[in-house]
Amino acid sequence: MLLSSFRETFLEKFLSISTWQSLLAILIFFGLMSGFWYGLKKIKIKFVYRILIGMLIGFIVGITIQIIIGFPGGSWFSHSGNSAWAMIDGNWIDISKYYVSNEEDFVSISSIVDLENAADLIKGTIFSDNNGTEAFVNAIVSDQSIKQGVHWVIEFNVWASLLKQVFINGILLITVPVVFIAIFKVVATPGTKGLGRISGKAVAILLINVAIAFTITFWLGYFLKIGNGLNFDNQLQGGSGTTDSKSLPSIIWGYVPSNFVSAFSAAAVLPIIVLAILFGTATKFVRKKHPESMNNLMNFMNRAWDIIMSVLMIFMKIMPLAVMSMLATSITTRAIGALGSIGLILAVGYIGLFVMLGFMTLILFVSGINIKAWWKYAWRPLIQGFSTQSSNATLPITMQTLNSEMKVSDKVVSIVAPLSTSLGLVACAGVQAGLIMSVLYTGSDSVSQMNIFAYFIMGLFTTVVASIGIAGVPGTATVVTSAVLNGIGFGPYFAPVYAIFGAIDGLFDMGRTATNVTGGVFAATLVAKEEGLFENETELISAKKLESIKDKISKKESKKSRKIFRKNKN
């Protein structure tokens, strides 16, 4: 009894190492991590290669563990790991809730500790569930077909997530001050103009991106009939879906925070943007009466920015190890073996992502941006988005890449980069919604009776509006599925459709987030090019072309000023 209590209380709940398999897997993983870190100290290689090596090691570890546990199905990961499993009719079944019928009484499978004895007991027996209902008759299994749950994998994931969570928490820690200080500095600086124009262009680019992504993915899924065989009509429960969708006015007023403290503690970025603009604008007005005090405030903000960037560099040093941890646990916590039946949907989703990355690259090329130089730096936020599955967690890296490496002006970076994490997400809104709509149309006889073009236009409009309120955080499948289906009047299909997208959300979210953050970098670059807001030493555009753009903008502003002057004079 004492030993059992020690195992449960100390080893399982506190130490999270209760089996020799857990201990061995954890020691091997941290041994690999230590060797990788030692190698990075001894061999000086570019940061991109450090990240790629970390991803490769994490991938190998994750796949190796999946091979060991046999690529189990979804329910394998949903229990505590203390269950017994049996191979019945080719499928692994969690039999912990069943009883074995013998001559005298029912014997609970969960009470059997010795799995070899369990195999002998259930040969040629009748399984019954908790209600006494016969579940499986004469199930013949071999000793090898009985095994314990993946409790050791669950414990491994707890430890393997250590560096991952330290890194993500550290990045999230500085996200709010990065956004607030960056925007405050831009708005509060005397003589700053054109912020409204920059914001308008950014929003337009982001929303157009969503519309294009939706269109491409929807028609791709439609022509490939990716919903064939899913029979959503037979899975309706008669409900009305969920109530996650919001009206456009409620989305807009939700961006204005009602509580100063809660705005800084929440995950949403847009309320922080609103606060920074309000305080920055107010600082401009107060500067007229108290210039010296406001100069001191700006100096404080400048030093605070330096400190935040220094903290960011501390966490960036462990990013290769964090990426290794992220990819390993991304694989070992998901039921890859359950994805066979919906692999086509996942494949079409990733095709949509790659098409959008190619499309954005093409637009930049046509706009005169040096594509080679752009991708030289854009890979960094893309990789972190892929690893963290969070646009918010990638934001500091996105801003640093745009500002320090691509040499995009602070005025653009401070406005566009934060906007792109919460508004117009090209993948989480555009590609995801296109998939949902095409799967539903090709997987439901009732829905397919609707005119395809009317259905497409409804979905396109709903998706663009819904993309204004979709946050850049992991697991947006629920929000997008609900918002789109309820928005077009097909809320009752939420449960069966989400059953598909919930299953692939983890694997799909990595690619979605990578494309989202790349879309943000794309929008900032395009706005900077249109406004001529690059530093002179940028590699993205030639000095001659940049000077030409600035001259055109200067002439336009002079012409506009003369018009205003003449109008006021008259």
From TrEMBL:
Protein known as: L-cystine uptake protein TcyP
PANTHER family in alphabetical order: L-CYSTINE TRANSPORTER TCYP (PTHR42865:SF5), PROTON/GLUTAMATE-ASPARTATE SYMPORTER (PTHR42865)
Q: Which organism is it from?
A: Mesoplasma corruscae
Q: Where in or outside the cell?
A: Membrane
Per UniProt, the keywords (alphabetical) are: Membrane, Transmembrane, Transmembrane helix, Transport
Chain segments annotated as transmembrane: 20-40, 47-69, 166-188, 200-224, 263-286, 307-329, 335-366, 412-440, 452-473
Give the record's membrane topology: Multi-pass membrane protein
The record's listing under InterPro entries reads: Na-dicarboxylate_symporter, Na:dicarbo_symporter_sf
- Family indicated by similarity: Belongs to the dicarboxylate/amino acid:cation symporter (DAACS) (TC 2.A.23) family.
Q: Coiled-coil intervals in this record?
A: none
Does the keyword section mention S-adenosyl-L-methionine? Answer: no
Please give an example of a GO cellular component term from this record: plasma membrane
